TrEMBL record:
InterPro entries: P-loop_NTPase (IPR027417), Small_GTP-bd (IPR005225), Small_GTPase (IPR001806), Small_GTPase_Ras-type (IPR020849)
Listed name of the protein: Uncharacterized protein
Keyword terms, alphabetized: GTP-binding, Nucleotide-binding
PROSITE patterns, alphabetized: RAB, RAS, RHO
GO-annotated molecular function: GTP binding; GTPase activity
CDD domains: Ras (cd00876)
Coiled coil: none
One protein family per Pfam: Ras
Cellular component annotations (GO), alphabetically ordered: membrane
Highest taxon of the lineage: Eukaryota
Biological processes, Gene Ontology terms: signal transduction
Length: 171
């Protein structure tokens, strides 16, 4: 039995989507990753004794996302929505994405990641600000992480797999 899931990271530009993927798939971190890249990565992992293969779509984050979001919703099984804890605009962007997703699929698994948790002294977003919107989804978790310090990165990707499994058990 193989577990293959196609997922995508969405969020405003500069929040660390590419670095989260680089950290998770290659244990690397780059200070100036190309902001325009839209690429796909794969990662094999083992969870609860099961082999899991993830195909992860990295998005550019500044597209006309009202159209693209529908395409992603058709093609992807789950989403990681990323904001930066030092950027209130990026939180608003995630909330907007949530609204658009909620209009279409309330039961799609969603992991909301507050990245750059290492920059706590410049914090502009409290984790509590995510609670309300997260509650509206059937399968949603949220966490703060740091791609730079490799903090809660693997956990975030594992959690999205668990959310997918939870949904599959219900259906
Ligand atoms: P993307 O546009 O969402 O793909 O963002 P990138 O992954 O390209 O990262 C944008 C910028 O934020 C880069 O300069 C990264 O080095 C920086 N960055 C990414 N993750 C972190 C993090 O966890 N902590 C800190 N301090 N900087 C980060
Ligand atoms: Mg990027």
């Amino acid at each position: 039995m193989s577990h293959f899931y196609q997922i995508a990271l969405l969020g405003a530009g500069g929040v660390g989507k590419s670095d989260l993927i680089l950290r998770f798939t290659q244990n690397r971190f780059e200070d100036c990753y190309d902001p325009t890249i839209e690429d796909q990565y794969t990662k094999n992992l083992e969870l609860d004794g099961k082999a899991v293969k993830l195909e992860i779509l990295d998005t550019a984050g500044q597209e006309e996302f009202s159209h693209l979001i529908n395409v992603y919703l058709e093609q992807r099984e789950a989403f990681l929505l990323v904001y930066s804890i030092i950027d209130t605009y990026s939180l608003e962007y995630v909330k907007k994405l949530c609204q658009m997703i909620l209009e279409k699929k309330r039961d799609i698994p969603i992991m909301i990641i507050g990245n750059k948790a290492d920059l706590d002294k410049n914090r502009r977003v409290k984790i509590e600000e995510i609670q309300e919107i997260a509650k509206l989804f059937k399968y949603c978790s949220y966490i703060e992480a740091s791609a730079k310090l490799n903090f809660s990165v693997t956990e975030s990707f594992i959690e999205i797999v668990r959310l997918i499994w939870k949904k599959n058990v219900d259906n």
